[in-house]
Amino acid sequence: MSGRRDFLSMPAPENYVAGLGRGATGFTTRSDLGPAREGPSEEQMKEMLAKRAASLGQAAPSAYGVVEKKPEEDEDEERFQDPDNEVGLFSSGMNYDKDDDEADRIYQDVDEKMDKRRRVRREAREKKEREEYERNNPKIQLQFADLKRALGNVSEEEWAALPEVGDMTGKAKRAREARMANARSYAVPDSVIQAAHSGGELQTSISTDDGGGTITNFASIGAAQKSALQVRLDSAANSGSNGAGTQTATTSGTATSVDPRGYITALDKKQAMGEDVPVEDINRARVLLESAVKTNVHNGPGYVALARLEEVAGKIHTAKKIIQKGCDMCPKSIVVWEEAIRLNKENIHNAKIIAASGIKQNPRAIKLWIAAIDLEQTPAARKKVTRQALDHNPQSVELWKILINDTEDIESVKLLFAKATDTVKLSEELWVSYARVSGPEEAQQILNAARKAIPTSWAIWVHACRLQEELGKVNLCDKIMERAVKALIKENAMPSREDWITQAEICEEEGDIVTAGAIIKATIGWKLDEDDDRRDVWLEDAKNSQARGRYEVARAILANAVSKFPTSTTVWHASADLEKHHGSTEALLQILERAVNACPTSESLWLLYAREMYASGDGEGARKVLGRSFEQLPGNENLYTRAVDFEVDDENYEQARIFLQIARQTAATDRIFMKAAVLERQLGAYEDALDICNQGLQTWPGSWKLHAIKGQIYESLSKLKEAQEAYSIGTRAAPKSPILYVLLSRIQEKQGAVVKARSTLDRGRQQNPKNDTLLVEAVRLERRQNNVPAAQKIMAAALQECPTSGLLWAEKIMHLESRTQRKPRALEAIKKVEKDPQLFIVVARIFWAERRLDKAATWFTKALVLDPDFGDGWVWYWKFLEQHGTEEKKAEVIERCIASEPRHGEIWQSVRKDPRNFRKGVGEVLKIAAAKAE
């Protein structure tokens, strides 16, 4: 036997298979593919298994094909071979090199990239489908989102006033059963009624019955009489409880009569306690609170809650006993002593004894001292108790305030303030109040002492500034606030910019306007670097202050913004808008004068200045402003058109014509030619207007407005053929103008060529796809021809093209739907088209037709607030007010309409641009349009 011990490191013999003698077989795994050597052949396995079987005296096993198989079985084995057992090209002899690995990695990267691209598209599509589904099927939480946001404005008092939720389980059922029990009645036997009837009669004869018959039981008769009376009272009580002002109490399931005085007492108690509490709730709460108190006998709030429960239940004596026990068990609980004092307030002597006992246990309890002070009825007694309280609590600001408020002599008040500020040096309120009751010189000294005592207090600086303003030294306010900012920054106690704005608004509310401006000037730029978008931040601050009604603060913020950004037209416009709506005309004109000097090339500021100057009644001043603007902006068409408007409003038409002639020579645009043609048309000079249109079209053949005006002039002259030709030329020169197709179709319809009108609109829709103006005109054309089915067919196709068109929805709801279907269609339209004034007007008209006038007025108001420039909204609202409005409301609407100067809307534009109405004001146009609206 060899002595070598390194046989484990020796190579295995050829064809060696571990465990082969035990019947194990060799196998390879996926990791063995490649360089791993193959196992023994099938013949070797047969030979080894046969030898083992012979040594054991057994038959040869069938493993590895020792028992011959039939050819059919071999085919079956090959047919059902495991696909994971790779053979052929994918056998273990395959060479897997680096190129194959790199190819697999590249293919994997490509697959991942393509999957990522598809995933982005798929997620975008799924998100869009999900948003569409949520918009069409909103959740309940989304429907109540506005109500949830409104809960943020609920005050703490309103939250506290919400009633507690009681046990509603089976409450309705129990109430119904109680009513049924009360309403139950029984028929009284005739014998009982007869006996009750004869019970009070006197008999003149004596019965000779010896007792063998029935003996009359007078007690039972009296009980029956009482029972019958009770039945009638119950019925009366039940019938009376249905009326107003009647109350019935239930005791053991039967109704009882009502004591008037007791009823009033109970009613007073219910009003004092809030509302009637069910007996079941009281009993349930009593059990819980008693358990809480027994579990923890030193739980002061538990005694208070239990006492208040008994008070609500009307057991005031029990409540006093409970709170007395609470005082004994919880002598250090302030709330228990406070509740005991409150429950015994009807007996002042007892309340004082309780307060003294509580203060003896808690000498530093400020609330108990204040309660004891409130029990005193004379000023001297209150002062005495207050002084005792201050002996124990000299640092209490509340006690000092009570003592000072109870003192009437001003000198004594000053002495008390001096003592209080010396004792409580860190109380801003005491220092400021001390300064207010003192003279000017003393106040300055007091505030200086306060500033030294509390260097981090900004309120003292603000009060010092307000003091200087009250003394008339307004020039010192800015210096004081500058010093305040430096001192607070040094002490690292500078409040935020928003807090300073709030303090400035408080000063404005109390009348200290100069102080408010000084605060804004010194602090509005706090923590805003020059690189930040300070202008937008300040504009937003001014807007918020203006919304809160603090116009002086907003004016100070804008003044600071103007000083930092003198060339910003946005800031100047904001300042002018503030003065226009919440200031004086003089201040507005001064702002605009400074604005045009700072921004001489701003067209909008010049136009605004000229318009406001003209609106103030100074027409000559407006002309001078325009003259100055021409020097700064020569050849500006907007300035020329504004000058023309001024001259037309003053009925100085020759001067207007001169301006337009100069403009056509120096600032020639299609708008100038259009303005000149419109003026000549309004003045009745149709030939001159046509000449101007022809001149303009030679230079600007694609100007659809010139084509439209030319056709309208021919229509005014009843030359329909020439008008049709003008519109037809316009549709070819400006094919992207829907208005020209509409005008051409209308004049063709007027001439009786309905087929041509349809063709014109179809041609316009081809040139301008998804245009709601052309689509609604096609619907109206069919409707005017009484072809409602065709109109509905066109409308269905139109809503497919323009599902968010308020014009189409309004036409469909008001003219193609029955009255019963208008409201559902309006709801559907509002879901698809958000915030469209035309739909709001439609909803208002639907409510108007249903005589729900309040809702109609609400929706009219919503439409006007949403878009005050939509003239048809004003027209329909005025038409509504003519029937259901007051004179004050009508005057208000006309005033608002004039201020808004609406310019859009089908009805409004048709009346406003009518040459017969060009001299009429906004109010007159509104009334004419309301008469025309259908």
TrEMBL record:
Native organism taxonomy: Eukaryota, Fungi, Dikarya, Ascomycota, Pezizomycotina
TPR repeat start-end pairs: 837-870
Any Gene Ontology biological process: spliceosomal tri-snRNP complex assembly
InterPro entries: HAT, HAT_PRP39_C, PRP1_N, Syf1-like, TPR-like_helical_dom_sf, TPR_rpt
Pfam family, one: TPR_16
Coiled coil residues, start to end: 110-150
Subunit text: Associated with the spliceosome.
Residue spans of biased composition, Low complexity class: 239-257
Name of protein: PRP1 splicing factor N-terminal domain-containing protein
Domain of life: Eukaryota
Chain intervals with Acidic residues compositional bias: 73-85
Keywords, comma-separated and alphabetical: Coiled coil, mRNA processing, mRNA splicing, Nucleus, Repeat, TPR repeat
Organism of this sequence: Paraphaeosphaeria sporulosa
Keyword Ribosomal protein: no
